[in-house]
Amino acid sequence: MRLASLRAYKRFVIVAWQFLPLLLAYARDRRRFLLFGRPRQVGHETHSRRAERLLDSLLTLGPTFIKLGQLLSTRPDILPPAYIDTLASLQDAVPPAPWPEAKQVLEDELGPVDERFAEFDTEPISGASLGQVYRARLDPETERTRADPTDDASREVAVKIRRPNIESLVNADLRVIKWSLPILLYFVGEARAFSLENLADEFSKTIREEMDYEREAKMLTEIRANFADDDRFRIPDVIESHSDSRVLTMEYIGGTKINELEELERKGIDRTQIAENLERSYLQMIIDDGVFHADPHPGNLAVTDEGKIVFYDFGMSGRVDSFIQDKIVDFYVAVANQDIDGILDALVEIGTLSPDADRGVMSEVMEIAIQDARGEDVEQYRVNQIVGQIEDSIYEFPFRLPKNLALVLRVATVVEGVCVTLDEDFDFIATATDFLTEEGYREETIRNYIDETGQQLRRSGESLTRLAPKTERALDRLDRDDLYLRIGVEDSDKVFENLAKRMIYGMLLTMSLFSTGVLYALEAPLGSIVAAAFSVVVLIQLYRSFRSPKSIGARPQFTRQNLRQRRGEE
């Protein structure tokens, strides 16, 4: 324990030496005199220089901070856009550990290499900040998970080994981050402080999960089962007899990297179809299955000669609860329909946008985002441009990202980038809309909206039938000097104001409908059309007056359970 504390103190000094000048510069960018004074705004070039320095510091500090940088690249609620752009390119650029050290980890978990494997290539085929991957062949006599035990052929596998002594380094760095957090909070605003505290907790959990290969094996197995009947994808099988908490042995599946376009063309692979299949796979994982591969950069995606997509590295994976799934559906449907209010409602309900945000300002942001994304073709717009506009606004407006939603946002952005690399004309929203329509989500959302609107109109009609006799009785009592009004000191719910509006709108509607009938009888078509249009306007206003303030802006609840029940009924 004492040695661990000493190591943590040493790391704290190293980290402070790297970050303190950058932190002071960042604070100086925001306030004239660091902690006080008028707010300052600096240009994109200054932010870019700061971001490059941050990137260099993260790479210098090693594996833990590289992972932290990757997580920060998904959090536009914490850093300005220039930082996000720079950190988005951060890869696991860490030299591989020497083979003797990796071999020690392997043998501590599985026993002698020569006894467990028929062949083992000691040169890693892939290196990451927390582990590295080797190719090997299993010894048929020791493999206990073969589908055909009589098959004596050796099986090619990929063996992922956790970096030697990485646990102690990560634990020390997590302690440093915990100690540093109170200092960081002095340099940022209240909203950023809230997000930073959440980020620290999330990062501690995420990096420990990523080091746990038993968890990765479970996630991989679950996702593989979800695609078991879909021959468009290949997901490696876990070799349980050769896996443990620090070693994960998987079926080796070769393929061409998904961004090697010339090689894909040479093999006659339809890149547009690959892009569509890739997007659909992630929509299924996030919206249908609730468990998803969260690191879809080109290094983790390949294509077989038969055109099947291969997924690698499930260390970074996540889950989405049913509520978030429903709200994601609402968001995509609203984007597809160019429904600005629907987009904002989904963001508020999901917890991303504060209910106190200026909806007028945010509507303008969304309208500009969709306008910019459309281009020349009105129907063509891409989700990454919409997300990009939202990210640019997050730093200035009251946005927050729930934990799992940050991973979903990153996945959506990265997948869209890969799809556009495969086909520069790829329409992400059109594919998403087709998926939602085919699965019944869009139809269910529209059906719920129609049902809700019908209920509102019915209630309005019932109120209208009650309004006329009540108005007549009130006028009669007024004529007899028998009308009393009880008015409270406060009318916070605006009950009286709403009642007055309803009375006025009701009388106006009666007059306009009567006028429409008279004009039509007198064969005055233009006048009757104007009167009818006025009646529609008054009816809409009357309908709105019957909606309580809390219900204004609310949208019908869409749930996956409703969809399943309706499918069962049909």
TrEMBL record:
Secretion signal span: none
PANTHER family documented for this protein: CHAPERONE-ACTIVITY OF BC1 COMPLEX CABC1 -RELATED (PTHR10566), PROTEIN ACTIVITY OF BC1 COMPLEX KINASE 7, CHLOROPLASTIC (PTHR10566:SF113)
Gene3D superfamilies: Transferase(Phosphotransferase) domain 1 (1.10.510.10)
Protein name, entry field: Predicted unusual protein kinase regulating ubiquinone biosynthesis, AarF/ABC1/UbiB family
Pfam families, per database record: ABC1
Keyword annotations: Kinase, Membrane, Transferase, Transmembrane, Transmembrane helix, Ubiquinone
Sequence ranges assigned to domain Protein kinase in this UniProt record: 119-464
Family: Belongs to the protein kinase superfamily. ADCK protein kinase family.
Coiled-coil ranges (or none): none
GO MF terms, alphabetically ordered: ATP binding; protein kinase activity
Transmembrane segment boundaries: 529-546
